[in-house]
Amino acid sequence: MKKTISFILFLQLCLTVFSQDWNIYPYSPAGSKITFPVDEGRHSSEPVEWWYTMGHVTGTSGKNYSYMLSYFYYPASIFDGFRILNISDDDLGIFFPETKPLNYTVLASDRLNIEAAIFFGGTETWKNRTDAGENPLPFKYKISAASSTGSINLECDALKPPLILADSGFLYQGASAYTYYYSQTKNAVSGSITLNGVTENVTGTSWIDRQYGTFNPSDGQEYEWFGVQLSNGMDLNIYNLFNENNEIPNTLEFRILSAYVDETTQYTTTDFEIERLKYSYTPDELMCYSQKWRITSPINDVDIIVSAAHSNYEVQLPFRFYEGPTTITGTVKGNAVTGIGFAELAHSYEKPTIQITEFANLGDISTLLKWEPNNPDDGNPLKYDLEYSIDNQQTFLPIAGNIIDTFYIWDSRNISEDKEVWLKVTGYSIDNTVSNFSTVKLVQRDVAINQIEDHQPINIYPNPSIGQFTIEGINIREIEILDVCGKIIYSSSINQRKNSVDLSAQQKGVYFLKLSTDDGITTKKLLLK
Q1: What is the pLDDT of residues 425-469, one digit of tens each?
Q2: How far apart (Å, rounded) are the C-alpha atoms in residues 233 and 247?
Q3: Beta bridge partners of 476
Q4: Phi/psi class of residue 217: alpha, beta or left (left: φ > 0; alpha: ψ in -120 to 50)?
Q5: CATH classification number, 31-345, choose in 2.40.370.10, 2.30.30.90, 1.10.10.10, 2.30.30.140
Q6: For FRET with 128, which of 154, 158, 217, 305 sits at 20 to 30 Å CA-CA?
Q7: Is 354:372 a contact under the CB 8 Å cutoff?
Q8: Is 447-528 the same fold as 31-345?
């Protein structure tokens, strides 16, 4: 029995020693391009570099604060870069951001040692704490920074080894940039915060991010970033970037979930989804940020809801972006978790502009309606409502709602031929915050066809057919055939009087023939039996 107890104690000691083998300098995680403390310092060969930290802290009064501090090395004009310091009273939802240019009086390359002379301000520092011999203490820092409304004086001690993104810490980011990137996902924080002349001692936790390379968040590349600290000890660094078409390609360059699971397990994946559940406009309505997200990943069965604590935490310099604390609920591997985090959002959502592209066979059982957003956004998948008006848009009657496609087959037989009909398509976000609509005046089916047939008879035979259709008419320029879902299954640019189309490989049913001629466009129905 004594031998068993001794062995267990020995094993626990070994595991403890092993679990702390990262908390030393120098430290180089296996397989990575990152070495500490050297890579905490300045990289003179890289054009852009920044040091970022955010934290949640509570004062002795019980008041809750958050802060974000970033130092950028990005020379412009007479300055070496700029600093952003945000301090927030999270109980009252009051946000105090400040961005100022700076020059670095000290910017060490062998350790973290920043001394920054702030334009029209004092000197700020963020550095390793040191022992009696002035050697840097592993992953222990001291921060002192002040804005016109407050200041932070904090000490931070890392509680976990660094999270090395993409395993090596090097990755391509966006369309053409690269970055070195690591995070220190949880640090114990103590010290003081001063806000509006009131100082109190605080304790809490923080997150540190380090990037250097050619990726520059100031160059217009839009992104959404989330730092997540979960109650089960798991931490997540998640972001997606948007390309110039507001698409989020499913590649490591544009979307990443990097997870710290425990001291021996980290991973990076693109296998995750972000569903945006809520949006909010700034008071001037020029920017619209997402504010609530469901993030899921099959790896470790992650299913969490991340919610912005406040909607008004926007920084306006050097560009406009949202930066604020979040709260988290959900499950990991089926077990309930809670958490805290931060969101940095540089992507603004536009009101959709909708173009109605098809409105065929009005008055028929199968009236095809098609539309498309001119400014689609992968981050904001739209739903659509369809309505129609027969009183010159004074009132609208519903056709269908909550449509996720961009087409609809409408039974419009109840529309009288002597009525003027308007179609309205409304596109909206999941919470209806981001919305817009478009209207178009429809033309009755028989009138539309007769206008063309007066100039150009169109003959289709046999119709119905078991597969072969002959389409005959003069000045036909293009033929398109669509299925009932609006998908084009056949397309041909031609210039001949008689044309054959073979649909024998298609399923039996109704199809739509769209003809572009010198006189206009007409649509007819084909029946494949």
Answers
A1: 999 999 999 999 999 988 654 433 333 333 456 788 898 999 999
A2: 33
A3: 517
A4: alpha
A5: 2.40.370.10
A6: 217
A7: yes
A8: no
Report the CATH fold assignment for 354-443.
Immunoglobulin-like (2.60.40)
CA pair distance 58, 62, nearest whole angstrom: 6
Separation of alpha carbons 90 and 313, rounded Å: 10
pLDDT of residue 20: 57
Which tokens sit at 330?
């959900």
Task: Strands of 44-197 (E only): list them.
Answer: 48-59, 64-76, 79-89, 94-107, 113-118, 123-130, 136-146, 150-158, 163-164, 170-173, 177-195
Query: 3-state class of 509 per DSSP?
Result: strand
pLDDT of residue 514: 83
Distance, CA of 279 to CA of 291 (rounded, Å): 5
Q: Using one digit for the tens of pLDDT, what is the confidence trace for 16-28?
A: 333 458 999 999 9
pLDDT score, position 366: 81
pLDDT score for 3? 41
Q: Point out the residues of the chain with pLDDT beneath 50.
A: 1-19, 445-455
- Which residue from 454, 428, 441 is spatially nearest to 393, judged by alpha carbons? 441
Tens-digit pLDDT profile for residues 289-312: 999 999 999 999 999 999 999 999
Provide the pairing of β-strand 314-315 with 163-164.
Answer: unpaired
Question: How high is the pLDDT of residue 413?
Answer: 84
Specify the DSSP class assigned to residue 16: H
Dihedral sign, Cα of residue 380, residue 385, residue 386, residue 391: negative
Displacement of CA 426 from its chain's centroid (Å): 23
The residue count for the chain = 529
Domain 447-528 is classified in which CATH homologous superfamily? Macroglobulin (MG2) domain (2.60.40.1930)
501 with 495: CB under 8 angstroms?
A: no
Q: Is the distance from CB of 125 to CB of 142 less than 8 angstroms? A: yes
Domain boundaries, the chain: 31-345, 354-443, 447-528
What is the identity of the amino acid at 208?
I
- Which 8-state DSSP code applies to residue 246? S
Residues 72 and 79: their CA atoms lie apart, in Å, by: 11
Structure tokens at 237: 């660094």
**How distant, in Å, are the alpha carbons of 115, 137, 206 from that of 260?**
31, 23, 15
Alpha-carbon gap, residue 63 to 89, rounded angstroms: 8
Strand partners, 85: 69, 98
Share of the chain above pLDDT 70, in %: 93
